[in-house]
Amino acid sequence: MAAPELRLRAPRPELLALPWDRALAEWATPDVPLRDLPVGPSRHLVRFVECDGELWALKELPPRIAAREYEVLRTLEDMELNAVRPAGLVFQPDFDTAILLTRYLTGSWQYRRMFMRLPPDAPKHRARLFDAMATLLVELHRHGVFWGDCSLANTLFSRDGQVLQAFLVDAETSEVHPSLSNGQRAQDIDITVENVAAGLLDVAARLERPDLEPGFIGEALAIRERYERLWELLHAAPTFGFADRYRVEGTIRKLNELGFAVDEVSLQPVVSGADELRLHVTVGDRRYHATELQRLTGLVVGEGQARILLGDLHAYRGQLCREAGHDVDERTAAQLWVMEVATPTMHRAHAAVGRSGTPIQAYCDLLEVRWLLSERAGRDVGTERALQALARNVVPSESAAQLMIVETPTEPFSVLDDD
What we know:
The chain is α+β, with helices and mostly antiparallel strands. It has helices at residues 13-16, 63-78, 111-117, 123-142, 182-206, 213-235, 247-257, 288-297, 303-324, 330-352, 359-377, 383-392, 404-407, and strands at residues 5-8, 34-36, 46-51, 54-61, 86-92, 97-103, 145-146, 155-160, 163-168, 175-176, 239-241, 262-269, 276-283, 414-415. The protein folds into four domains: 5-104, Phosphorylase Kinase, domain 1 (2-Layer Sandwich); 111-235, Transferase(Phosphotransferase) domain 1 (Transferase(Phosphotransferase), domain 1, Orthogonal Bundle); 239-283, no CATH class; 288-401, no CATH class.
């Protein structure tokens, strides 16, 4: 019997002790701490184990495909792109298989949970999901990554303020290039639209709602437009006269509002000796607001969350300046905001939602609900009323806080019983 070859990036004691010399299908409780997690259909066997206080996903693959996917995921991690993080690779020569080990993405969920828990006539929440998928595809393509099998089933989602973040889960068909051609990008978009449409039709069938099919197909087709709109914004090269170069600021502001940092701006004459200039913007990572919030407060949060929290911080600083009768520097205001406002209130908000999700996300939900209720009332309704709305789950229908129901698990992860 040939011993398995282990490559573990997290050589934890309990991980090392797993029965790597046995086929994954033969693993059973109580010898192995298997956990039962709801997942969609997969071409390969996928199982979950809890070791050393963490959850891990294990996928059985042919050795060549497993090694390739492992390297792609390592590359995506180095690029800091949204994808599951590879934790190890185990070759099992006796079975001519390999096991790819990845970290379970805490706080994530599959699309089925949202579609089954929210009413099907809530397209605004689905729009957040499709925006996240289009954004992920744009980010992958910007870095030369061809996904090859983007679908609802191969994507995990997590909440980030009022938006969603999408994460690549399956990289079996993915390729990394220096850059992608327009044809490669178009092919990846075609695959995405087709796969998403199929996934949505499956949802309609599960809900026994054939009347939803035309709308679902339209939403799948619209992913292409979402993608192209963002791609064009990031790669546009507008021209204008030298006297109109103030327009550069507007372009930068628009990119910053979407969360993109600008690394470099280049203004080049369209024709030698002429007044007309062409603008080229080199766009960096999509963490503009998150980086600014971390600089001021030390908080590490998602980009969508940071945008909301910075707005709250700026409002608080304005209040401090009015009360003090003079300017309060941003670092002092940030420190006071963290201690006196954000930290205590986020824990109250987290308690109000039954500790579902994270305290940061609960605070973001509180701020949005307070704003929406205040807009309806024509006055500031205050924090207490917004907390009551969260606790009673009577938030406005258009609020992203409606997605709290998706974050709440039906029950704790159970031990898989093979008997």
